[in-house]
Amino acid sequence: MGKTSKFNVINPDIIRSGERERKRLKEKIKDHVKDNLERYIVDQSFIGRKGKKLYKIPLKGLRVPKFVHDWEKGGGVGQGEGDGEGEGKPVPGDGKDGAGNKPGQHSLEAEFTAEELAKILAEKLELPNIEERGKKKIVNEHIRFNDLRRVGPEATVDIRRTVKNSILRNIAEGNYDPEKDEYPPIDIKREDKRHRIWEKVFEKKAAAVIVLMMDVSGSMGDTQKDIVKTEMFWIETFLHSQYDGLEVVYIVHDTEAREVDRDSFYRIRESGGTNISSAYNLAAKIIEERYPVHEWNIYPFHFSDGDNWNSDNSVATELLTGKILPVSNMFCYGQVESRYGSGEFKKILENGFKDQLGEKLIISVIKNKKGILKSIKEFLGKGK
């Protein structure tokens, strides 16, 4: 019989090897998601989710290591003799296609939080960190372990440091013979214990607000609305990764605008005519009342098909000039192509704000779902 010990010690080389393989697989999955990001971000099942929920992403085409039988050495299922009582019972199924000789379809799924997906999105699009402007700070409190002591409650024992001290003490006391013992003994004594000491740490984070405005008029079909909701969801997710103190205002409009909650925003359909100025007027009012420019980083986003009531165009541009652009880090206008929309509002913005295009005013055209990634980069690539 082999040598027994009071403690079962796992070879640390095995642990390190397993950890390396786990990290390697994690990086492989991350690269796979990044390479196929365009396909994943248009998945409607993501839209509207919030919090620390895990998102399951099917990883088609990605294989992971698995154990297989060595058939040459025999054994395994079906290798022994039968019991002589005829055929076995069939596996349940319709059996229309008869016996098969090809493997089934298996899909590996990986789980990511919204924050992890936002980081992958930022890496894929090479998005810079946002430049902070507002002076208002959100104070976050968290615990940081910054010291070790010999005494303290059992709940604060630092296991790694305590075990290390025990090993070193046993070696120093001559309780370990490398020729006889494979590993040093571990017997914890009072003098080995180390307790973690913590303190409260307060961090100040810049505050930001996103004002999301969406045209829900009749010329915006369900396809166009889904494109807008998808892009807005990922923009919101990315900015949440940049600001701990992020607030979001949701506005929908046709001829009239109204503020809605998050759930309603990502579910709404509606129809009607279009007055873009109604959304701009409401956004300006909310910013003025709730988000002083000297305290907040302000990001208004407006998505439409560009079809606006002609007499309303001048009112909308005046609101942009006088009330919205001056208080915004940048104003982003996304125009979704629609067979029913004229697309004229984009031309009006380009002609009326030539000196601010690409800086204070960002315009992006989204032809279809494939254009969402490109549009996100156009909006957030400036890092403002």
What keyword list fits this structure?
Rossmann fold, 384 residues, single chain, 7-stranded mixed beta sheet, 10 helices, two-stranded antiparallel sheet, alpha/beta
Structure write-up:
It contains ten helices and nine strands. With about 375 residues, the chain is an alpha/beta fold. The chain has three domains: about 10-40 and about 50-60 and about 105-110, no CATH class; about 145-200, no CATH class; about 205-380, Rossmann fold, CATH 3.40.50. Strands 3, 4, 5, 6, 7, 8 and 9 form a seven-stranded mixed sheet that branches. A two-stranded antiparallel sheet has the order 1-2. A hairpin with a 3-residue loop joins strand 5 (about 245-255) and strand 6 (about 255-260). Helix 1 packs across helix 3 (about 115-125). The termini are far apart. Mean pLDDT is about 80; it is low at about 1-10 and about 140.
Total strands? 9
The average pLDDT score comes to 78
Q: What's the helix count?
A: 10
CATH class of the largest domain: Alpha Beta
SSE-based structural type: alpha/beta
Uncertain residue ranges = 1-10, 138-142
Q: What is the number of independent domains? A: 3
Please indicate the percent range of residues in DSSP E strands (runs of 2 or more).
Answer: 15-25%
CATH topology (level 3) name of the largest domain: Rossmann fold
Strand-and-helix sequence, N→C? HHEEHEHEHEEHHEHEHEH
Profile the largest sheet.
7 strands, mixed
What is the terminal-to-terminal distance? 69 Å
Please estimate the helix content.
Answer: 25-40%
Q: Quickly give the CATH architecture of the largest domain.
A: 3-Layer(aba) Sandwich
Name given to the CATH homologous superfamily of the largest domain? von Willebrand factor, type A domain
Rg over CA atoms: 30 Å
Shape: elongated
